[in-house]
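Quick check before the chapter quiz. The format below is the same one you will see on the exam, so make sure you can read both the input and the output lines.
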Amino acid sequence: MVLIVTVQPQTELVVHSTPELDDGEHERFTHIVLEGYTSKDGELVALDNSVVGGMINATPVKALCGKVWVPGRDPQKYPLCPTCREIAQSLGWSLPNG
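Here is the expected output.
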């Protein structure tokens, strides 16, 4: 499952991650992609990181863990990336079990 996240932070959200070279291990996980966030003034700030756009246009997206790939597989068939989960939980996001 790909989680599309919109954040309503008290302060501006900055997520730093080191892109990982794809050694195949990350192909076995579902990743969390941040597509945008809500600014302090309530405006939705879209990031150029859309899963749907990536699927339609065959363009890469970037996960919280740093993995960059072109989405195309059924994310419900894979467990959630532990690094993406850890980052999301550290930000206080609620995630589905599994």
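If your answer matched, good. Helices lie at 51-57, 82-90.
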